[in-house]
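> call design_seq(struct)
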């Protein structure tokens, strides 16, 4: 999986984060880049509002952005928190994030070599859709061990595609894995809802259901006291 994200991190990092044509490297303008980071401001502010309306005032000391990519959300988190920990599986993505967040209060960690440093707020926006469930369900408790406050982690629980389209998508992915036809297809996974709830054992948990074009999802708002 890290090889796939190394490809996007080195070749097409912004499109790897938000798959919108204007964010392709060969089309990326200053205006598009500003739009890209502005979307992160809107998203983070909405998550902060949700966290505080669910569990009360946040401690704005340390935040963690899991699956930070090029720093779209970390950039806004750094405006609000004393320290931010930006985590990604790709060193190339982290290098892009370091460039975008230069001089800001951000520490970077590779997801394969995370520390156990405690955090007061944690955010992961539709990252686990790209992680095999058998791996993702092990990552969640590791993240929650660091939590001293509120986390918002988004989990896909149902594929909205028809069975025929899912078969076509799997077949296309298999063919692309053998043929050098350009950028690799980013894998998509869904999780069993009961397994997701079990992974958050030990936290106070509330859930908000929402849809994306591909998935029915849970926005899990978890709280663990200091």
């Amino acid at each position: 999986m890290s090889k796939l994200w190394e490809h996007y991190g080195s070749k097409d990092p912004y499109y790897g984060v938000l798959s919108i044509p204007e964010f392709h490297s060969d089309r990326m303008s200053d205006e598009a880049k500003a739009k890209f980071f502005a979307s992160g401001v809107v998203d983070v502010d909405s998550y902060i509002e949700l966290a505080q309306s669910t569990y009360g005032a946040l401690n704005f000391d340390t935040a963690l952005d899991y699956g930070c990519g090029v720093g779209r959300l970390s950039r806004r988190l750094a405006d609000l928190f004393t320290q931010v920990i930006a985590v990604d599986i790709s060193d190339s993505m982290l290098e892009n994030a370091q460039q975008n967040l230069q001089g800001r209060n951000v520490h970077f960690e590779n997801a394969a070599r995370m520390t156990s440093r405690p955090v007061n707020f944690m955010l992961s926006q539709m990252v686990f859709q790209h992680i095999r469930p058998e791996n993702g369900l092990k990552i969640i408790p590791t993240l929650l061990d660091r939590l001293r406050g509120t986390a918002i982690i988004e989990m896909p629980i149902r594929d909205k595609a028809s069975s025929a389209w899912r078969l076509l998508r799997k077949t296309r992915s298999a063919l692309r894995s053998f043929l050098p036809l350009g950028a690799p297809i980013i894998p998509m996974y869904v999780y069993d809802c009961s397994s997701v709830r079990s992974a958050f054992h030990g936290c106070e948990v509330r859930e908000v259901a929402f849809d994306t074009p591909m998935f029915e999802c849970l926005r899990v708002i978890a709280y663990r006291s200091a």
